[in-house]
């Protein structure tokens, strides 16, 4: 009964979007952040933006598009827009099988190589890190692999996302039960402390990570990221069209140091996107390696 009632309200308050308005808004979003919304998902704009239009006192998508292009508040509105078009779904230890294979192969090999070169430094870039679960998981893996030796290493994880809101949540490091749905219980008890709103990440895990708001569609920002031994970009390029996927893959390639690795999400591939990397087949996943 309750849900029927609320969907009636939603329908009544929903602002209809014409085909032309949809194309204009879709192109605007693509131009700003590379996210491509397929025409089949037009209804998403109606359901996600109607409340925002009401908050701004606008009665049509044409008015909202004018607002985005010309209003004095257009720059700050961009963050609201990004929030509305992104999907921030994530969790600690997401895709455990891939993470195990990554740890036992890519990470082990990379750490051994740095040791053999006598250079105890490591840079990992987590691109599209959402609210921080992915980079914090990487920090946990590094602490477990290195143990007390970690004190002798200079490790930096640069974790970036388009949405300032999720970056703020990541910096705060407080998580509810949902974030642990793929996490072994003993990991939660060991690396988090109880908090009135859930669980808070232990400070030593955060010390390796630098969180920043960054748009992967901004070539100058991408060039400022320090060269990486490993790039994680999981479940992000799935929202991009082919041209944007190619630009981002090229940026990761340029950023990686020789012999470095790119890790994508389990449903993502570089097939038809980039032939620059060498695919390395791991149990349950593929790592993409840049030549030495
Ligand atoms: C589904 S989450 C994936 C989070 C994490 N990598 C994981 O696999 O659990 C996708 C993230 O990519 C971010 N994103 C999408 N487009 C982006 C862009 N152009 N620049 C930076 N981040 C972007 C979104 O804000 C969102 O937080």
Task: Describe the overall structure.
The protein is built from 12 helices and 10 strands. It is an alpha/beta fold. The chain has 2 domains: about 1-85, Chemotaxis receptor methyltransferase CheR, N-terminal domain (Chemotaxis Receptor Methyltransferase Cher, domain 1, Orthogonal Bundle), CATH 1.10.155; about 95-290, 3-Layer(aba) Sandwich (Rossmann fold), CATH 3.40.50.150. Strands 6-2-1-7-8-10-9 form a 7-stranded mixed β-sheet. It has a 3-stranded antiparallel β-sheet with strand order 3-5-4. Strand 9 and strand 10 (about 285-290) form a beta hairpin. Helix 4 (about 60-70) packs across helix 5. The N and C termini lie far apart (about 60 Å).
A few lines on this structure:
The protein has helices at 2-13, 19-33, 42-55, 61-70, 74-85, 96-116, 133-146, 164-172, 185-191, 203-206, 219-223, 242-255, and strands spanning 121-127, 154-161, 174-175, 192-195, 198-201, 209-213, 228-233, 256-264, 278-282, 285-289. It has 292 residues and is an alpha/beta fold.
**CATH superfamily (homologous) name of the largest domain:** Vaccinia Virus protein VP39
CATH topology of the largest domain: Rossmann fold
Proportion of β residues? Answer: 15-25%
Mean pLDDT: 94
CATH architecture grouping of the largest domain: 3-Layer(aba) Sandwich
* Assembly status: single chain
Distance between the termini: 62 Å
Q: Rg, please? A: 21 Å
> Helix/strand/pairing class, anyone?
alpha/beta
CATH class of the largest domain: Alpha Beta
Please write the string of helix (H) and strand (E) elements. HHHHHHEHEHEHEEHEHEHEEE
Shape estimate: globular
Bound heterogens, unique: S-adenosylmethionine
Q: Which stretches of 5+ consecutive residues score pLDDT under 50?
A: 1-11
**Main sheet properties:** 7 strands, mixed
Major beta sheet, strand line-up? 6-2-1-7-8-10-9
| Number of E-state strands | 10
């Amino acid at each position: 009964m309750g849900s029927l009632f609320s969907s009636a309200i939603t329908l009544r308050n929903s602002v209809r979007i014409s085909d032309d308005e949809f194309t204009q808004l879709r192109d605007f979003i693509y131009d700003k952040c590379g996210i491509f919304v397929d025409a089949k998902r037009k209804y998403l704009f109606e359901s996600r933006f109607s409340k925002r239009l009401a908050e701004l006192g606008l009665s049509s998508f044409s008015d909202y598009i004018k607002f985005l292009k010309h209003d004095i508040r257009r720059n700050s509105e961009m963050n609201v827009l990004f929030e509305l078009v992104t999907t921030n779904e994530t969790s600690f230890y997401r895709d455990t099988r891939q993470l195990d294979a990554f740890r036992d192969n890519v990470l082990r090999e990379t750490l051994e190589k740095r040791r053999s070169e006598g250079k105890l430094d490591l840079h990992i870039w987590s691109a599209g890190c959402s609210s921080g679960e992915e980079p914090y998981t990487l920090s946990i893996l590094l602490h477990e692999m290195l143990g007390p030796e970690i004190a002798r290493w200079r490790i930096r994880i640069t974790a970036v996302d388009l949405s300032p809101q999720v970056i703020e949540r990541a910096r705060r490091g407080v998580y509810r039960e949902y974030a642990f749905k793929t996490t072994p219980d003993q990991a939660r008890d060991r690396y988090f402390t109880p908090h009135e709103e859930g669980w808070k990440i232990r400070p030593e895990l955060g010390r390796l990570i630098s969180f920043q708001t960054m748009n992967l569609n901004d070539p100058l920002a991408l060039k400022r990221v320090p060269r990486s031994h490993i790039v994680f970009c999981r479940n992000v390029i799935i929202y991009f069209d082919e041209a944007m996927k190619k630009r981002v893959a090229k940026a990761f390639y340029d950023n990686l140091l020789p012999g470095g690795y790119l890790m994508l999400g389990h449903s993502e591939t570089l097939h038809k996107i980039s032939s620059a990397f060498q695919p390395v087949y791991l149990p349950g996943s593929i790592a993409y390696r840049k030549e030495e």
